[in-house]
Amino acid sequence: MFDRYEAGETAVLVHIDFSDENSREDLVELQLLVESAGARSVGVITGSRRAPDRKFFVGSGKAEELAAMVAATDANVVIFNHALTPAQERNLEMVCKCRVLDRTTLILDIFAQRARTHEGKLQVELAQLRHMSTRLVRGWTHLERQKGGIGLRGPGETQLETDRRLLRGRIKAINRRLDKVDRQREQSRRARQRSDMPTVSLVGYTNAGKSTLFNALTSAEVYAADQLFATLDPTLRKLELQDGAVFLADTVGFIRHLPHDLVAAFKATLQETREADLLLHVVDCADENMADNFEQVQEVLKEIDAHEIPQLIICNKIDLLEEVSPRIDYDAEGVPTRVWVSAQQRLGLELIQQAITELVGDTIHEVTLKIPAAAGHYLGQLYRLEAIQDQEYDDLGNCILNVRLSDADWRRLLKQSEGELETLVVH
């Protein structure tokens, strides 16, 4: 449905350094993204600006230099390491005489190649449609075949209007199907909560080694490779610990400036992260950009409202460092904060299990609440969480509840009630 990469496709890359730290990207990361997409870089244009040019993003002189390199290398696509407006894309294509893609489109294309499950394919298509709906500049007549085309057009309706109407219809259809998938996922999550087994979710920057670690811990066979976004569809496995077990979830890797369309489309998938009792934040400690990547993951966690869930930092790939051995770092209160391991060499895996046991051993929260009639709305929330173990009423009409729920759900309820729920606890 969209412009897709073919094996051996050649690309000219464009990377601009801006004075604003928030607008900066990493050129090495762009080259890895292009490689992951299946294209081959034949040239790089770099430069620096205080702000993007309104017409060409890079300025007219740099645009001519870009066009000359495209002609000299016979490249068939130009890929920017930045987000472009539809007008900038169109203007650059007229100058370069080839396709021009921005960073967001590139990431969406990689996701389209990696999607394996029905849900993953729907989510990627939805993100692509949302992004491309502002870029109806190359002709979308192929969309007509989905609904017949002839006979659908109103009097005087242009091709662009027809394409937009068909696009809106497709987006609505995908949203309906994803809502159904979301309800099925919700049922599975509730079943896991009823089992009183905590959920631990792997998060981290793309290519930090999450899937390799997941396979090493659970003996699963999730696809793992040294490339960006090797994992797209979430996988859950049971992880046996010394004093029990947890559900371990492998999730999609994060990246700086993760496209908003992607975050919105992957709502159901990211819910696995939001509902977790503990996050294992996997970090490639051999990467020179480790600190920056760590902050980028924290930004995405904040964006999806998962930043308050407890985190255990997993410093992976210690086999690439000198004189670093597996260990657990503790804070002043004796709580595990970091575990140093090598998933590839299977070093320190037992330390991860030990740290998880220490952190989630008491994640089930049991409390008695006295809820007056005026606060009856809390009953519905607790019923939806299936947390109520026993219920009775006192002489004043207050509802006395014995509640049992995960520590993460309890903290979430306290946050939503702005602390009021805590005043209802019977001590």
Describe this structure in words.
The protein is of the alpha/beta class. Helices cover 39% and strands 22% of the residues. The strands form three sheets. The protein has a seven-stranded mixed β-sheet, sandwiched between helices. A hairpin with a 5-residue loop joins strand 13 (388-393) and strand 14. The protein is globular, with a radius of gyration of 25 Å.
SSE arrangement:
Elements: E1 9-18, H1 27-37, E2 39-49, H2 60-73, E3 77-80, H3 86-96, E4 99-101, H4 103-114, H5 118-132, H6 159-194, E5 199-204, H7 210-218, E6 235-241, E7 244-250, H8 260-265, H9 267-274, E8 278-284, H10 290-303, E9 311-316, E10 327-330, E11 336-340, H11 349-360, E12 364-371, H12 377-384, E13 388-393, E14 399-406, H13 407-416
Could you tell me the radius of gyration in angstroms?
25 Å
| Class by SSE composition | alpha/beta
Low-confidence stretches: 1-7, 138-156
Give the SSE string: EHEHEHEHHHEHEEHHEHEEEHEHEEH
